[in-house]
Design a protein that fits this description.
The chain is α+β, with helices and mostly antiparallel strands. It has 16 helices and ten strands. Among the domains are: about 110 residues, Immunoglobulin-like (Sandwich), CATH 2.60.40; about 120 residues, Serine Threonine Protein Phosphatase 5, Tetratricopeptide repeat. A hairpin with a 5-residue loop joins strand 7 and strand 8.
């Protein structure tokens, strides 16, 4: 009995949820269960997203027939979708479907739709909500800085310049002489003297204020310009697919940056070989899987060869051949190019 298993998004793509569709199952759809195993670690998925070397069976309830085809399907949730998506960058998964009541079972590789979304993507938005509440209690103390007597120092600063003109008031002895003539009608002398005093005060104030700006020697900010050389690191960011970038970034960040550059198949194979040579196995597998699932037949073929016993070359990243995984990638190729002779021949020989 040959089956094909796909995990597809719902009609309304809901993070953490999907549709498990099984094609080619000829037995009863009642009482089915399944186990999921990573081809990399050989561990089985358990509840809570844990992986263990002991098989665990998930019950597949509510299986319904798909209209217009020989397939059955049921809705699955975050307990299956999230861990599969999180590990899909470096692993493929075998699924064994069985019916304990009849003893029927079948095994195949799981095909994950690239449009599936993990519910964990919504996680960061949730904790962000309580933060503003915590900020509210901080609001009461805010008035305290407003009460700060900062304005008072400013008043004292304004008074200081007025204090300087006072020494000029030493001229007042002059008014003592005029009083005698003032009585004779020369009342204009007093206003003149006041004008002179005001002018003297204005000159003193002007002098005081013009002298203060001299701290302008704060031109040293020009010294900060040497920081311009910091722009040099941008040159490193301009080459996201290099070994230097690979060694200086987190695995996922490097893969995303390199994929965004859209290198052609030959260039990407060079990057993958560099990753393998430097034991960046996660990078090599993520690059392989990303482009292979996206329809790059050349990359998918190279990835299948990593597991195909006919082409396998032992390395730190691909230590042993794996018929089922090789068959999975050959089948992926046939999904994009059904007339690919090599993929068809190797799939027929390696399929479970």
């Amino acid at each position: 009995m040959g089956i094909r298993v796909d995990v597809l998004p719902l009609d309304v793509n809901t993070p953490g949820h999907g549709m498990l569709r099984i094609a080619g199952w000829e037995g009863s759809s009642e009482g089915l269960q399944c186990s999921l195993q990573s081809n990399q670690t050989q561990d089985f998925l358990h509840e809570g997203g844990r992986w263990s070397n002991v098989a665990h069976w998930f019950r597949l309830e509510g299986m319904t027939a798909v209209e217009g085809g020989s397939a059955i399907e049921t809705r699955i949730g975050p307990n299956l979708v999230n861990p599969l998506l999180q590990a899909s960058g470096t692993s493929a998964f075998r699924i064994e479907v069985s019916n304990p009541a009849t003893g029927e079972s079948a095994m195949h590789m799981v095909r994950l739709s690239p449009t599936l979304v993990a519910s964990a993507d919504l996680g960061p938005a949730m904790p962000a909500a309580p933060e503003p509440e915590a900020a509210r209690p901080v609001a009461p103390p805010a008035p305290e800085p407003v009460v700060a007597p900062e304005p008072e120092p400013v008043v004292s600063a304004v008074i200081e310049p007025q204090a300087q003109p006072e020494p000029v008031a030493a001229v007042p002895p002059a008014p003592s002489a005029p009083p005698a003539p003032a009585k004779s009608g020369n009342r204009w002398l007093l206003p003149l003297i006041l004008l002179l005093l005001i002018a003297a005060a204005a000159v003193a104030a002007w002098w005081w204020f013009t002298q203060r700006p001299q701290p302008a020697p704060v031109e040293p900010p020009a010294a900060e310009q040497p920081a311009a050389p910091v722009a040099q690191p941008a040159s490193a960011a301009a080459a996201p697919c290099t070994l230097e970038s690979m060694q200086g970034q987190a695995e996922l960040a490097f893969v995303q940056g390199c994929i965004q550059q859209a290198p052609d198949s030959a260039k990407l194979l060079e990057v993958i070989n560099t990753a393998k040579a430097n034991n960046h196995c996660g990078v090599a597998q993520r690059l392989y899987a990303n482009r292979a699932q996206g329809g790059d037949v050349q990359i998918a073929m190279a990835y299948a060869h990593e597991y195909d016993p006919k082409y396998h070359q032992a390395s730190e990243c691909f230590k042993a051949p794996d018929n089922a995984t090789a068959a999975y990638w050959y089948e992926t190729i046939l999904g994009f190019d059904e007339n690919n002779a090599e993929a068809k021949a190797r799939f027929e020989e390696l399929k479970p």
